[in-house]
Amino acid sequence: MEMESTLKEYYGFSTFRPYQKEIIEKILGGRDSLVVMATGSGKSLCYQVPPLIAKKTAIVISPLISLMQDQVMALKQRGIKAEHLSTAQTNLSAQRNAENGEYDILYMTPEKACFVPNSFWSRLLTTGICLVAVDEAHCISEWGHDFRVEYKQLYKLRDVLLDVPFVGLTATATEKVRNDIVDSLRMKDPHVAIGSFDRKNLYYGVKSINRGSSFVDELVAQISKHVANAGSTIVYCTTIKDVQEITKSLCEVGIKAGMYHGQMSNKAREESHRSFIRDELQVMVATIAFGMGIDKPDIRHVIHYGCPKSLESYYQESGRCGRDGITSDCWLYFSRSDFGKAEFYCGEASSVNQKKAIMDSFMAAQRYCMKATCRRKLLLEYFGETFASNKCGNCDNCTDSKEESDISREAFLLMGCIQSCGGYWGLNLPIDVLRGSRHRNAQSVEVLMIVLVDRRPRRLLKTSLTISHTMDLEKIFQQIGGRCWVFN
Ligand SMILES: Nc1ncnc2c1ncn2[C@@H]1O[C@H](COP(=O)(O)OP(=O)(O)OP(=O)(O)O)[C@@H](O)[C@H]1O
């Protein structure tokens, strides 16, 4: 009963959402917990309520200073004593106040948590710590989509904070990442709460496009319709150049669009974020820098212009849509040239494992783009959730009528061509061969292919591209070539 009254008193909510109560009970009982729940499902409450009941401080590790500042502000408005410790903290007495147990919730960056002197922890332990929450816990894992080296060091807190329950929280974690979080935080027999990843109110759609001004015009026309129907839109781009170009095109037709990317100053980014939250902007055009902590309930459309770098990040970015539960849509527009960015993304890797992880998640995002079957099923199964039906009825592949035709001959030729390329080339070369390209590389493979292909089927031009989008090339390639398939 105390839990419900605390919820009512500070948050004004009458009931807990699924999983929240049991997680809070386990934490209050001193048990380590791993919480994997969809974006917007209410994970924050799981670590915000225990300190209010236990009357001890909750330590929350969070990766972003701006996110911590927003959360501290929101908690203060609810009458909860909260503060953050980071390089951006200007209140010099904040650390001393924290040691004295003056805060219910204390946010810290991982660096701060690892480098603050042990005496800080010993003092705080005497006043009382009820939990250490590691938010965005997937950052711990090299197999996650947003690995951060500082997160890997958090296990050190274990030796100092004996008997304090640790809670890892994330919206996106495959089984491998979940195991990594448990191991890395040295959790002992954790309570594991895994909610459904299914966001039923979201419609998923994907379309292959040719990049260029005519597509931008199409996009602007589409967004103009959205804007007329109210509700906010986010357009995620893969480059800053695209962000600038699309924002300009939207503004030219009178749409209130703002930008958010890594080359803007902190101040400009904050202003842009705030204007979007306050509905002064109808559309936010951003790179993935516009990330964690976007708690705007009425985002109706999330558009991706370009294939995302991982399926985890796609799920998280598209998940910002429709947090109020109202029908909303997530469209992804990709062109085949997007698939050539693997090496670029791998450049961020600091180990062989991480490079493989980046490559795997990028391949998963590509599969999502190319799949001809239910997108929701693919997304959910990627995160280890079983989706019993083959059709969700709420994605383009389930709702659009598709013409069926027998393309087994074309598929056979494409596979033969891939085999002739020896597995060392990407998808472009086999397609070029089938197109009858005059390129030197294509011609040398063509000699091998001539046995297989009579030169008539120029119609393979289009079909080979479509087949390559439809077939599970990774599996086929393993069967016929035995080598690793790499898109270029
Ligand atoms: N029991 C509840 N009843 C009603 N609303 C709730 C409840 N719990 C949380 N919420 C609301 O749901 C919204 C999402 O909650 P929260 O930000 O904690 O989600 P989250 O799972 O942490 O999402 P993300 O992964 O995107 O950070 C918030 O506006 C929050 O106030």
Automatic annotation (TrEMBL):
A biological process term (GO) from this entry: double-strand break repair via homologous recombination
Keywords, sorted A to Z: ATP-binding, Helicase, Hydrolase, Nucleotide-binding, Nucleus
Domain (Helicase ATP-binding) ranges: 24-191
InterPro entries found in the cross-reference section: DEAD/DEAH_box_helicase_dom, DNA_helicase_ATP-dep_RecQ, Helicase_ATP-bd, Helicase_C-like, P-loop_NTPase, RecQ_Zn-bd, WH-like_DNA-bd_sf, WH_DNA-bd_sf
Keyword Cell inner membrane: no
A Pfam family of this chain: RecQ_Zn_bind
Main location: nucleus
MF GO annotations: 3'-5' DNA helicase activity; ATP binding; ATP hydrolysis activity; four-way junction helicase activity; nucleic acid binding
Domain Helicase C-terminal residue range list: 222-378
EC number(s) from the headed UniProt entry: 5.6.2.4
Keyword Transport: no
Swiss-Prot/TrEMBL catalytic activity: Couples ATP hydrolysis with the unwinding of duplex DNA by translocating in the 3'-5' direction; ATP + H2O = ADP + phosphate + H(+)
Domain of life from the UniProt record: Eukaryota
Compartments, record wording: Nucleus
Gene Ontology cellular component list: chromosome; cytoplasm; nucleus
CDD domains in alphabetical order: DEXHc_RecQ, SF2_C_RecQ
Family per record: Belongs to the disease resistance NB-LRR family.
Protein name: ATP-dependent DNA helicase
Species, as recorded: Cynara cardunculus var. scolymus
